[in-house]
Each structure stands twice: as structure tokens, then as C-alpha cells.
# Entry
Amino acid sequence: MNQDTTQFAASSADDELARNAALFFEADRLEACAYSLLEGDASSAASWQRFTEAKAVADAKRSEAQQDLLRIRGQLINSPVP
# Structure
């Protein structure tokens, strides 16, 4: 692998890791929004229903981010070393 190809591969990995970090940040944001639904009204069934639905969305986003990170790690482990 020549230097240009190595630099492109490193840049591509950096781009993928940056996109992955954005997925984790979005999961964190969604989770914070879910918990904010309980502020001031944690005793009503409607609040808990809204929280449960919002938390499920946040959890799905976190799962997506974790699966994406595993994919990226697999690519990095299996990529040829120059």
C-alpha cells in the first residue's frame, strides 16, 4: 500500500469515527430529552408513557451507534497494515 492509499484509508476511518461519534451524541441527546419528560410530572401514567417511547428511540439510536462502532472496529482490525 502506498502512502496516498494509506492516508486515504486513515482519513476514511477518521470520517467514519466522526460520524459514529455523532450517532452517540444524538443518542445522548435523545436520552436527555426522554428524561426531561419526567421533570415536574413523574407521577402521571401519560408522562411515563411518553418517557418510555422517547427512551426506546434513544436506546435504538445507541444500539445503532454501538453496532456501527463494531463494524468500524472490524474493518480496522481486518485492514492490511502497510
User: Anything to note?
Assistant: Residues 27 and 62 are 5 Å apart (CA to CA).
